[in-house]
């Protein structure tokens, strides 16, 4: 508790100093990480709090996931939540430490009896995924894309429905995002949850989830704030607020 109040006090002191408004590109709605309507969520709260440590104010702008790096490249924003596999250092970006790390897995209906251990196991299967996954995981998805069996969609609720309705065979999603939307569906009348199977297919690479800033000093301020968030315990508290609902 004492560490928490020290962090808040330090943040207030820092706010007195000159900070800037940081316009950052985020994906549209990705609960529990991003709630577009009220500018909340695990990822937004962590980034906002880390920037606030040095007096900066976060202003989110929302785009379809695949357009996040484009918004940065076109100088529509000061920062981006991630690069979606595009090297934004070439566009003047400074990479920061990751605020959150997505745990992406292949998900299938257990009743389909599909096994995924190698890229060849995806042959003939239809894959619904978040936008940019084809860039992030070319070894697994290149053939799927070439054969037009890949559907990248920014609305990840749609992914769940496509799998449950058997329109697509496999969903590639962060496991927490997928479970969030399943839980939302459970609140509906006459909805019957279906058992699914998850297949981990790639080691999590934290570097894939680094925010990017146009200004090096702001990037450094963010990294320091993120470090202080973790040391104070507030980082975990933000996660707990959303994951223990």
Automatic annotation (TrEMBL):
InterPro entries: Solute-binding_3/MltF_N. It comes from the Bacteria. Coiled coil: none annotated. Keywords: Signal. The keyword Nucleotidyltransferase does not apply. Residues 21-245 form the Solute-binding protein family 3/N-terminal domain. Signal peptide: none annotated. SMART domains: PBPb (SM00062). Transmembrane segments: none annotated. It holds the Pfam family SBP_bac_3. PANTHER family: AMINO-ACID-BINDING PROTEIN YXEM-RELATED, MEMBRANE-BOUND LYTIC MUREIN TRANSGLYCOSYLASE F. Belongs to the bacterial solute-binding protein 3 family. This is Amino acid-binding protein. It comes from Paraglaciecola psychrophila 170.
């Amino acid at each position: 508790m004492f560490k928490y109040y020290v962090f808040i006090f330090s943040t207030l002191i820092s706010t007195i100093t000159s900070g800037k408004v940081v316009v950052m590109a985020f994906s549209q709605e990705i609960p529990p990480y991003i709630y577009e309507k009220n500018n909340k969520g695990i990822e937004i709260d962590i980034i906002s709090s880390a920037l606030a440590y040095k007096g900066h104010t976060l202003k989110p702008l929302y785009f379809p996931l695949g357009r996040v790096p484009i918004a940065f490249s076109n100088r529509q924003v000061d920062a981006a939540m991630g690069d979606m596999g595009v090297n934004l250092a070439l566009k003047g970006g400074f990479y920061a430490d990751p605020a959150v790390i997505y745990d992406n897995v292949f998900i299938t209906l257990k009743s389909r009896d599909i096994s995924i251990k190698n890229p060849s196991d995806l042959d003939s299967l239809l894959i619904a995924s978040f936008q940019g996954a084809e860039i992030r995981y070319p070894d697994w998805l290149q053939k799927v894309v070439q054969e037009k069996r890949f559907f990248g969609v920014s609305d990840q609720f749609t992914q769940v429905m496509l799998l449950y309705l058997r329109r697509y065979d496999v969903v590639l999603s962060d496991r927490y995002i997928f479970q969030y939307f399943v839980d939302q569906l459970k609140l509906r009348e006459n909805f019957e949850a279906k058992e699914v199977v998850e297949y981990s297919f790639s080691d999590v690479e934290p570097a894939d989830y680094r925010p990017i800033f146009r200004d090096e000093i702001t990037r450094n301020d963010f990294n320091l704030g993120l470090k202080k968030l973790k040391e104070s315990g507030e980082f975990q508290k933000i996660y707990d607020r959303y994951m223990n609902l």
